[in-house]
Amino acid sequence: MEWGPIILTLKLAAATTAILFVLAVPLAYWLSRTTSRIKPVVEALVSMPLVLPPTVLGFYMLLAFSPQNAFGDWLDKWLGIQLVFSFAGLVLASVLYSLPFMVHPIQSGLSSLPNTLSEASYTLGKSKWTTLRKVLLPNIRPSLLTGIVLSFAHTMGEFGVVLMIGGNIPGKTRVASIAIYDEVEALNYGAANGYSLILLALSFITLLVVYLINGGYLKRFTV
Amino acid sequence: MIELNVHKTLQSAQGSMELHVELTVEKGQFITLYGESGAGKTSTLRMLSGLMPPDKGSITVNGTVWFDRERKTNLNPRHRNIGYVFQDYALFPNMTVSQNLEFALDRKQDKTVVEDLIATMELQQLRHRKPGTLSGGQKQRVALARALVRQPGVLLLDEPLSALDSAMRQKLQQYILEAHKKYGLTTILISHDIGEIIKLSDKVYEMQNGKIVRQGAPPDMFGLGKTSAKFRFTGEVIRIQKEDVVYVVTIRIGNDAVKVIADQSEVSHLQPGDKVAVASKAFNPVIQKI
Predict the structure, then answer these.
(1) Which of A28, A74, B107, B251 has the fewest Cβ atoms surrounding its Cβ within 10 A?
(2) How many domains does chain A have?
(3) Where are the alpha helices (DSSP H) in chain B?
(4) For every residue of B109-168, which 3-state class applies, written as one string?
(5) Which of A182, A11, A181 is nearest to A88 (CA)?
(6) Whether A127 and B83 lie within 8 Å, measured CB to CB
(7) Domain that holds residue A70
(8) In terms of CA atoms, which chain A residue is nearest residue B103?
């Protein structure tokens, strides 16, 4: 067993979670406020990865980003970005795949706050951005934590999307879940067991931390 | 001076309602909007503060146009010079009392105003507490102080005292009145409490189904000027019971329930929930110290 796939998995999960957080906060804010007619469509799209087989998502991304296709070709020629079989491609796929795990907790957290909190802030001369940053987000810390940890854990556990778009290139796209599959195929049950145990422990610990903090057992870390 | 003339179609549980409010409030005046729930009082305050856009009309405050449908002007709430005290206080749970007040400061504003308000509202003991640990009356004082940090010209109070007991109400009415005078505010209050209205306001507007139906000085509005009564109180009918040939009407006045004998012609137009005045002319009331 090597540590490379584990480290790559953690890097992927960290990068994905960071990007998702930046994307999901404005998206969740918009969803919690809007009365637009396209809201159900956006909500359905955000939730799609929950029900769609990861291989479907991976398959279409593979097609879209392949240099044989117009979009992939354009990315490659004009921006020098190759998303197929690369770490950047994995991050992009993981962001889409884990989107609902970040958006849903933040959206429900924001929706649960009384409207008068933001209205009070507006009447006190504050902008929407200041209100979001100083009033709304600090008051939904448990939801933010849930979103971050679930996205991280979910990205660690993904397999189908990674396999389709990333393949199995050591040091680049060979994450732990792929390594397990690979070792089992090669009948290296010992190595597969090593990776599996580490993933099992990591998943358990991250989830345990969420429940400990949000359950108020570690009060000094919360509001 | 506030000149407000707004129209809005509101959707409520009883169907849609046409709200049309036209009122002028002089600078430094203290006025009250009075009326049943759902009459459009809160919506009026929300339109004045910019939290709800009117369908048409205009709002001008001290010569500045805040809203004008024709001219497509709609000033953002943050640029309207108002202090708004919400019914549920709307204190920020993540901040202490001091931080709640400091949050309201404008970028270049001097911090002394916060200290001044903490002293005026007697919040020194509470300044490092979070809102979650405060009682209703304490929260209300913080909300009032916070609304005054930006030294607004207009103070809007949406039933600020309705959740408090009567002793606390008395005290907070005093705070409100002091702030109104000290900071030279133009204040609009929403209240159901007749005693409170008479104590605080210069003028009262009664709203019904989205319209102002009556207006005047509080004592005239609630019938205090009509009889030369020796003593009189306002209260609410709780119960009407027939006993032999007379009726016994139980009326809540403040925290007390009193029973008054009435005949059929007097009770025929009364029902529980009505606001009434109880007065006596012929006898001198006896005053006893308790």
Answers:
(1) B107
(2) 1
(3) 41-49, 97-103, 112-120, 136-148, 166-182, 194-200, 218-221, 264-267
(4) CCCHHHHHHHHHCCCHHHCCCCHHHCCHHHHHHHHHHHHHCCCCCEEEEECCCCCCCHHH
(5) A11
(6) no
(7) 4-221
(8) A124
- Across the interface, whether the CB atoms of A120 and B82 are under 8 A apart is answered no
Q: For residue A145, which of A205, A94, A102 has the smallest C-alpha distance?
A: A102
Report domain extents, chain B: 2-221, 231-280
pLDDT cut 90: percent of chain A above it: 40
User: Which SS3 state, helix, strand or coil, does residue B6 take?
Assistant: strand
DSSP string, A162-200: HHHHH---TTTT--HHHHHHHHHHTT-HHHHHHHHHHHH
Q: What is the mean pLDDT of chain B?
A: 87
Contacts of B116 (CB under 8 A, 6+ apart): none
Evaluate whether the domain defined by B231-280 bears CATH number 2.40.50.100: yes
> Per CATH, which fold does B2-221 belong to?
Rossmann fold (3.40.50)
Q: Cα separation of B248 and A197, whole Å? A: 81
- Whether chain B has a CB inside 8 Å of the CB on A216: the answer is no
Do the interacting molecules here have an ipTM over 0.85? no
Residue B289's pLDDT is: 65
